[in-house]
Design goal:
The complex is a heterodimer.
Chain A (H helix, E strand, L loop, with lengths): L4 H14 L2 H14 L9 E2 L3 H4 L7 E2 L3 E4 L7 H14 L4 E4 L6 H6 L7 E4 L6 H9 L4 E4 L7 H14 L2 E4 L12 E13 L4 E14 L7 E6 L8 E2 L19
Parallel strand pairs in A: 3-7, 3-8, 4-5, 4-6, 6-7
Antiparallel strand pairs in A: 1-2, 8-9, 9-10, 10-11
Helix pairs in contact in A: 6-7
Chain B lengths: L2 E6 L11 H13 L7 E4 L2 E5 L1 H7 L2 H13 L5 E6 L1 H9 L9 H5 L10 H9 L5 H5 L3 H19 L13 H6 L21 H17 L5 E5 L9 E5 L36 E13 L17 E6 L5 E2 L2 E10 L7 E9 L4 E7 L2 E7 L2
Antiparallel strand pairs in B: 1-3, 1-4, 2-3, 5-6, 7-8, 7-13, 8-9, 10-11, 11-12, 12-13
Classes of the chains: A alpha/beta, B alpha+beta.
Chain lengths: 255, 369
């Protein structure tokens, strides 16, 4: 069958104009449902809703680098794991490089699929090479550099992430990270709640996370989070500079 | 690699209609279990148990093999062997041999490549003139991944005795069957694969993780698996990543004797949330009361004085803003790995730690990082 080009265009125009909005909305819903999970063509990787507000796109953009925490910050690993959890739950592969002491139960509670989390606990001196190799085929890489990286090395890994459309989440720890990232997350006002002198048990940790970035993300955004919440997941914490005033006392009433 | 003893009963390889074979196999496992409680059914007619502990207890691997052989023979004709890793141990059982630790490579070398059970790979190697596992293992690592893919690279490590688990060696279904569950209970595997079993993302990840393993060694890339346990250290274990570790519904770790699953209640378990950092080597800690005296715990798991400050690895003293516990931990009282102590949550200005005390010595087991 042969259809001349002008006529073909005419047919297309008519069909798109004639579709009623309800049908289009229904079609969009179907398209969303049948969208392939973990298709490498998608530009964004999902994050848990409490973190979405901190990211300029409401999700992790492929090919970018995010640093979590300043040197010596506690809780940085939790934030990094929370950041990759939603993508992991939808079928993306994740890797954790350079952290020999992952609490696997905590990671699973955050929603990470442990069967798709490759752990390179002690890459030693080969850490940069190993990270470069893993970036070839893993969507999200959480890197805790065991040694202070040289500029050129960091730049190469950032370039590799961009080229392979992976997300590189760096937890600089004491080693530091010399390359300015696309997005920086910082934790402040970190407090554990639930224990007193000998009473109760640790229930949840309240923290304020601030994100700053380049270009479109230059304006700092702040969010109050519970990480972990009492069930080990991530939740939005109630606002209030004075701290935990808006929620019921976490202390054991019986104690 | 674990040192494994394998019991192999050729009569029980094929299941029958009435389930008689399966019942005999269950009897066999019960008989062997006298010598070690961690017997794992591998597939119908084959079960394995860790050899190191029982061998030490019963006076050597020869003695253990003899005991297990006698116990198994009372049920059904059986072959018993010991080697490093499951693959070599099954072959050792077939020949009734005890392969010395570290000699797996030499033991496997003369065997034909077809024994790896991958007919495509065997055919390819045959055309290349490679007939034995020894010749295959002698190929340089660097070329294997490119030529034979991730599965081939793994088979190469198995052939050289550097890895003990071959894909498809285990039939996790058997563990379920022995527990009396029906086949219908098996979860349906939901993999986001479009064209058959393995998704494109899984295949890409497998390639790059194999490359990382070539760089760091097989144990350089691991996967975490959850299991039942009281403390955070016991609740997870790390296994070497292989392409066989892909999610396939039931993993080998759901074996019958693996104990209660991660969801089962454990008395004395620390309440959630779980710590994000579990220190691979626990760090020494000093816990002092307001007078600066070390905090002690009584034999019944009660604190003598209230903790006031904490010092980790001889570092500066940090005042505690809160603490909770202790949770008594009396673990494995039946074995030599018996541990008796207590756990305590301690919060400083910088972090919250899970401390454990044993024989009066405090250490940091985990950090709620």
């Amino acid at each position: 069958m042969f259809v001349s080009p002008p006529r073909q265009r005419l047919v297309r125009e008519r069909t798109s104009r004639d579709r009623d909005p309800a049908a289009l909305a229904a079609l969009a819903a179907v398209a969303e449902r049948t969208r392939p999970i973990a298709a490498s063509q998608t530009r964004l990787l999902p994050v848990a809703p409490p973190l979405a507000g901190l990211l300029p796109d409401g999700a992790l953009r492929r090919g970018t680098t995010v640093t979590v925490g300043a040197p010596g910050d506690d809780g940085a690993l939790s934030v990094a794991l929370a950041l990759v959890a939603a993508a992991s739950a939808t079928g993306s592969w994740c890797a954790l490089i350079g952290h020999p002491g992952l609490g696997a139960v905590a990671a699973a509670d955050l929603g990470i699929d442990l069967t798709r989390l490759a752990i390179l606990p002690r890459p030693g001196v080969a850490w940069a090479e190993a990270t470069a190799a893993v970036l070839e085929g893993v969507d999200l890489v959480v890197l805790c550099p065991p040694f202070a990286p040289r500029h050129a090395m960091a730049r190469r890994l950032v370039a590799r992430a961009r080229e392979r459309r992976a997300v590189l989440v760096v937890v600089p720890g004491r080693a530091g990270w010399p390359e300015p990232p696309d997005l920086q997350l910082h934790m402040t006002d970190v407090t554990w709640e639930g224990v007193d002198a000998g009473k109760g048990h640790l229930r949840h940790r309240r923290m304020t996370v601030t994100s700053t970035g380049r270009r479109s993300a230059a304006r700092p955004i702040r969010r109050h989070l519970w990480l972990p919440a009492p069930d080990g997941t991530l939740a939005e914490a109630p606002d209030g500079p004075g701290g935990p005033l808006d929620h019921p006392s976490p202390y054991d009433p019986a104690a | 690699m674990d040192r494994l003893l394998v019991v192999r009963c050729p009569d029980l390889f094929d299941e029958d209609e009435g389930g008689g074979v399966l019942r005999t196999f269950a009897e066999l496992i019960d008989a062997v279990e006298v010598y070690c409680p961690w017997v794992t059914p591998v597939r119908p007619g084959i079960c394995s148990l860790p050899a190191r502990g029982p061998a030490r207890y019963f006076g050597g691997e020869d003695a253990l093999v003899e005991l297990v052989q006698r116990a198994a023979d009372s049920i059904t004709p059986a072959e018993v062997g010991v080697a490093d890793g499951l693959f070599a141990a099954v072959l050792a059982a077939r020949r009734g041999r005890i392969v010395p630790a570290g000699a797996t490579g030499e033991f496997l070398a003369p065997l034909p490549v077809s024994i790896l059970g991958d007919s495509d790979l065997a055919g390819l190697l045959d055309r290349l003139g490679i007939r034995t596992l020894g010749e295959f293992a002698a190929l340089p690592d660097a070329h294997i991944l490119g030529r034979f893919g991730a599965d081939g690279a793994h088979a190469h490590r198995v052939a050289g005795g550097r890895s003990g688990e071959l894909a498809d060696l285990r039939q996790p279904r058997i563990a379920r069957l022995l527990d009396g569950d029906s086949d219908d209970d098996l979860p349906v595997v939901a993999e986001p694969g479009f064209w058959g079993g393995v998704s494109d993302a899984d295949a890409r990840a497998a390639r790059c993780l194999s490359a990382a393993q070539d760089l760091l060694g097989p144990d350089g890339v691991v996967i975490a698996r959850l299991q039942g346990g009281r403390g955070p250290t016991q609740r997870a274990r790390f296994v070497t990543w292989t392409t066989a570790a892909r999610p396939k519904g039931l993993g080998p770790d759901t074996a019958r004797r693996a104990g209660p699953g991660p969801g089962a209640p454990w008395p004395g378990q620390i309440p959630p949330p779980a710590p994000a950092v579990v220190h691979p080597e626990s760090m020494r800690a000093d816990l002092a009361d307001a007078q600066g005296e070390p905090v002690r715990v009584t034999g019944r798991g009660l604190l003598v004085t209230s903790p006031d400050r904490l010092s980790i690895e001889g570092g500066p003293w940090e005042p505690l803003s809160g603490w909770a516990g202790p949770w008594p931990a009396d673990e494995r009282w039946w074995s030599r790995a018996h541990r008796r102590g207590a756990r305590l949550q301690a919060v400083t200005a910088r972090a919250a730690h899970l401390l454990v005390v044993e024989r009066g010595c405090w250490s940091v087991e985990a950090t709620y990082g």
